[in-house]
Write a structure and sequence with these properties.
Blueprint lengths: L1 E3 L6 H14 L4 E4 L2 E3 L3 E4 L2 E4 H9 L11 E7 L2 E6 L2 E2 L1 H4 L7 H18 L2 E4 L13 H10 L3 E6 L5 H11 L2 H6 E9 L9 H9 L2 E7 L23 E5 L4 E2 L12 E5 L10 E4 L1 E2 L2 H10 L2 H10 L3 E5 L1 H6 L2 E3 L8 E2 L6 E17 L14 E14 L3 E3 L2 E4 L2 E4 L8 H8 L7 H15 L2 H7 L2
Parallel strand pairs: 1-10, 2-9, 3-6, 10-11, 11-12, 13-15, 13-16, 16-18, 18-25, 19-21
Antiparallel strand pairs: 4-5, 6-7, 7-8, 14-17, 19-20, 21-22, 23-24, 24-25
Length: 457
């Protein structure tokens, strides 16, 4: 089990790297994270899981399943998250106070782990946050570690400073059952001369009994982020400019990971950020009403309307399509009703049941400026409570065109090399498998692989 001294220590990246490394050794390996928190989700088995476990499954050469992330928390307000269990949204658990949820969540976590363990040779478990959060009940780190009787590998972000204090402090504050299982540690995101680290690693080993398994450098990788979004590439020059409106509850930003390889992508939070853009993207939204209010507060609604009036292209995805419409109705109080931006004649009604499904978009003959995607069949996925209906602009199932605005309820279209080639004139490179191999090479080069074999028996 990979545990972290802090959030963003590199747990997800290390599990992804280990998944590909063990896969290269012909091990039947799968990832598992009992509980994740992210609005970047993927559809598998008709349910949804965090994108990190979807990526880890691909690195391991496996088909992702909801067992790999049985509990997913999706923030939809400052103090509220939607609870997804075994891939299905649970309004009853969402309504519970945070500290009351544990007894209802643990059976799903334990059962999912047991199913994976029974079917596969090796389960790589990822923790969440830190196992030393002594103010909180902890199912995801300490209870899972004890339930699986796993060997623990503690990872620390050395780039932020204080790594040895983080290691020793986490070890000392963790429960005794966890300390017994913490077999080793990894220093992650290192820059500089590794020879200067001693006697730090040796001292930590002497005081804790954890073995120093190695030092991973700060790796320049191309994986989409587990939470939010990051621009990791520069396109060839010249390239079109794309502005992505990043409202507070923007979701599924991970699906844009290929766009920076073919266009100059930037985040937009003010009207000026849209200036000079060849394309504006309205991404998904986990809380459409709140994001609609944010657009009005920033006067971005006016800027988007002015852009459409001038013939500027806008691509709106799922929650973005709802924001581009006229209004959002919510008779059941799911998220909240709202006046949308009004870029096209779409009306959304929120329904209690969440739609999570894989699907295919078949583009018919498209009007300009979207004619390049005419005739393409593109696989994607839907995750939404909103049901969208259109007046005078329906083009094909799940896709609507109105002037220079193209809207869809389907995520993943901008991951298609064919779509990106059609829109931007450049085909993106293969990114995921190349990165998985890069990460596995880093394991081989920088970690004690003999010790890894001993940890997994």
């Amino acid at each position: 089990m990979v545990l972290g001294c802090t959030s963003t220590a590199g747990k997800s990246l290390l599990v992804t790297a280990l998944a590909r490394w063990f896969h290269r050794q012909s091990v039947d390996v799968v990832p598992f994270k009992a509980q994740n928190m992210s609005n970047n989700a993927r559809v598998v088995d008709g349910g949804e899981i965090g994108v990190a476990q979807w990526l880890q499954a691909r690195a391991a050469g496996q088909t992702a399943s909801v067992d790999m992330n049985p509990v997913l928390l999706k923030p939809e307000a400052e103090t509220r998250s939607q609870v997804v269990v075994d891939g299905v949204a649970r309004p009853d658990l969402t309504a519970l106070a945070w500290r009351e949820r544990g007894p209802h969540l643990w059976p799903a976590m334990a059962a999912a782990y047991e199913r994976l363990s029974a079917r596969h040779e090796l389960v790589l478990i990822e923790g969440a946050g830190s196992p030393a959060e002594i103010n909180l009940p902890d199912l995801v780190n300490n209870q899972v570690l004890e339930h699986a009787d796993a060997a623990g590998l503690l990872v620390v972000d050395i780039d932020r400073g204080g790594a040895f204090a983080h290691l020793y402090g986490t070890w000392s504050l963790a429960p005794a059952s966890t300390r017994r299982r913490l077999a080793g540690f990894v220093l992650n995101k290192f820059r500089g001369d590794a020879g200067l680290l001693e006697p730090g690693p040796a001292t930590i080993g002497e005081r804790t009994g954890m073995a120093a398994l190695g030092v991973l450098p700060l790796l320049a990788h191309q994986l989409p982020d587990e939470e939010g979004g990051t621009i990791r590439a520069d396109p060839p020059t010249p390239a079109p400019t794309v502005s992505v409106v990043r409202y507070p509850y923007a979701s599924n930003l991970d699906e844009l990971y290929l766009v920076p390889h073919v266009a100059r992508m930037r985040w937009a939070s003010t009207p000026g950020d849209l200036a000079g853009a060849d394309l504006v993207i309205l991404p998904g939204s986990k809380h459409v009403a709140a994001d609609a209010a944010w657009l009005r507060e920033r006067r971005l609604d006016r800027e988007l309307s002015a852009r459409v009036a001038a013939g500027g292209a806008i691509f709106a995805v799922c929650g973005g399509a709802m924001l581009a419409g006229r209004e959002v109705l919510d008779p059941g109080g799911i998220e909240g009703a709202a006046d949308a931006v009004g870029l096209m004649p779409l009306v959304t009604e929120m329904e209690p049941s969440k739609l999570t499904r894989a699907t295919t978009v078949s583009f018919p003959t498209m009007p300009s400026p979207w004619d390049g995607v005419s005739g393409l069949d593109v696989d994607g996925y839907e995750i939404r409570n909103g049901r969208v209906r259109a007046a005078d602009c329906e083009l094909a199932p799940l896709v609507w065109a109105h002037g220079s605005v193209l809207a869809t309820t389907v995520h993943g279209l901008l991951e298609s090399p064919d779509v990106l080639q059609a829109l931007f004139g450049t085909r993106p490179p293969e990114v995921l498998d190349t990165t998985f191999e890069l990460l596995a090479d880093a394991i081989e080069t920088h970690l004690d692989t003999a010790a890894l074999w001993r940890l997994v028996g």
